[in-house]
Amino acid sequence: MKIIxxxxxxxxxxxxxxxxLGFAQEAALSPVPDKRVKDIxxxxxxxxIQASPLCQQVREIGHHVRHIHEAAxxxxxxxxxxxxxxxxxxxxxxxxxxxxxxxxPSGEDLANYSDVTVLRTWKGAHKVGDxxxxxxxxxxxxxxxxxxxxxGESDLSLQxxxxxxxxxxxxxxxxxxxxxxxxxxxxxxxxxxLTAGDGIQGMFVIRFSPTLGGDSxxxxxxxxxxxxxCNAFLENGQFSVSVPYRLDPLFKKYxxxxxxxFLKEVQATADSLGYAASSAVTK
Length: 283
Description:
29% helix
């Protein structure tokens, strides 16, 4: 009787919540500049995701499900100039504590969205201090309807991961090369995405220890009034650049490069392409 009751409750929950899931996804993830993480969270709550057909499939399978997306080699760029030319925005941003996981418009995967604050800009409409939201073709979610306190308590989890095990942690301020998704891409990331590599090439992470303390706090979310302080902190520190995807054609050249050298390369590339006039560096 307990099993029947539990299944009945689950069925009712799924029927009620998924009735408007398609509209909810479209409303939450429509590619417009004013959609932020909070807007996506409002529509795609944990309850909505748990009641989705995607999580229902995981529960029916009865174990962890991982969707691995390998990027097509022809979608990568081999140099910084090509990457910048194909980008709509090239910016330096503070690392973000504000992110969320959502079901993709196709209903077949998860994507992760982050709010970031612009510290410098080399190309695009966003100015220093603006908030920008972009999506990544990866995410994790517990699909069990039972209360969970840790990932280790359940195998009923769903993971979407682009780049497989060749993708490293991306913690820290970032130089981002972004563009708007086009045509079929909007079924995965219907907003800003990394410019190349099927959404995984165009991120250069500033190696940044979470235990630094001190002035590093100014780069955490970059609150009002801290843009200049975060920029100064990055300029005065001895940081290097990390390329998260090990198979990125730019990995060998830029992974481990001193931040000061990499920023000069980005600026030189912007100058050579005629974007220097749109650069705005806060010091």
